[in-house]
Amino acid sequence: MVEFIFVSPITSKAVINSCTNESVLVLDYWKRTGNDLESIWNFISN
């Protein structure tokens, strides 16, 4: 599981604790969803 901390949902910035492809996908998905935290959480949880 990717560990991460959301710093600012408004500016789409996050601190990732892991430099894996999955982390990049999470950031990409986060940007695509317009920073919808509920959607990104569901995406990570599934």
Structural description of this entry:
It is a single chain. The protein has 46 residues and is of the alpha+beta class. It has one domain (4-45). It has 2 helices and 2 strands. It has helices at residues 21-32, 37-45, and strands at 4-8, 13-16. A two-stranded antiparallel sheet has the order 1-2. The longest helix has 12 residues, at 21-32.
Distance between the termini: 11 Å
Q: What is the 3D form? A: flat
**Into how many domains do the coordinates divide?**
1
Describe the sheet with the most strands: 2 strands, antiparallel
The helix fraction, in percent, is 40-55%
- Rg measurement, Å: 10 Å
Number of helical runs?
Answer: 2
Structural class estimated from helices and strands = alpha+beta
User: What is the strand arrangement across the widest sheet?
Assistant: 1-2
Low-pLDDT regions: 10-19
How much is the average pLDDT? Answer: 59
What's the β-strand tally? 2
Q: How much of the sequence is in beta strands? A: 15-25%
Element-by-element helix/strand order: EEHH
Topology record:
Elements: E1 4-8, E2 13-16, H1 21-32, H2 37-45
Antiparallel strand pairs: 1-2
Task: Provide the descriptors you would attach to this structure in a database record.
2 helices; 46 residues; alpha+beta; 46% helix; single chain; flat
How is this structure best summarized?
By secondary structure, this protein is of the alpha+beta class. Helices cover about 45% and strands about 20% of the residues.
